[in-house]
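Backbone-to-sequence.
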C-alpha cells in the first residue's frame, strides 16, 4: 500500500470515528442545539468528503476519464447544496453556530491527525 493510499484510508475511517465520538460527546455533555450543530456539521462535511472521493476515484479510471469541467460542476453543486443546508440550519436556529463549526472541523482534524502520524513515522523511520 502506498503512502497516499494509507493516508487516505486512515482519513476516511478517522472521519467517521471522530464524527461519532464528537456527536456522542455533544449529546452527552452539551445543550441540544449545540449537539445538533456538531452532528449536522460533522455529517455534512464527512458526506461531502466521501462524495468527493467517489467522484475523483471514478473520474480517474483509465476506462472512464471524465472532463475536469464535470468534476468541477459536481463539486460546485455539492458546495451549493451544502451552503443552502447550512443557511437553513443557522437561519432557522436549529443548531448552535459554534457547534456547527466544531462539526465542520471533523475532516480537518482527521487530515491533521493523519499528517502528524505520517511525519512521526518518517522521523522514526529515518532514526533507525
Amino acid at each position: 500500500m502506498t503512502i497516499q493510499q494509507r493516508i487516505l484510508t486512515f482519513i476516511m475511517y478517522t472521519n467517521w470515528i471522530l464524527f461519532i465520538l464528537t456527536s456522542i460527546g455533544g449529546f452527552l455533555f452539551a445543550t441540544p442545539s449545540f449537539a445538533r450543530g456538531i452532528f449536522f456539521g460533522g455529517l455534512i462535511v464527512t458526506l461531502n468528503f466521501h462524495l468527493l472521493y467517489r467522484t475523483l476515484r471514478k473520474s480517474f479510471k483509465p476506462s472512464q476519464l471524465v472532463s475536469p469541467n464535470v468534476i468541477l460542476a459536481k463539486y460546485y453543486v455539492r458546495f451549493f447544496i451544502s451552503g443552502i443546508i447550512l443557511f437553513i440550519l443557522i437561519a432557522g436556529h436549529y443548531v448552535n453556530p459554534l457547534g456547527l463549526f466544531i462539526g465542520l472541523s471533523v475532516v480537518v482534524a482527521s487530515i491533521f491527525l493523519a499528517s502528524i502520524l505520517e511525519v512521526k513515522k518518517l522521523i522514526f523511520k529515518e532514526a533507525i
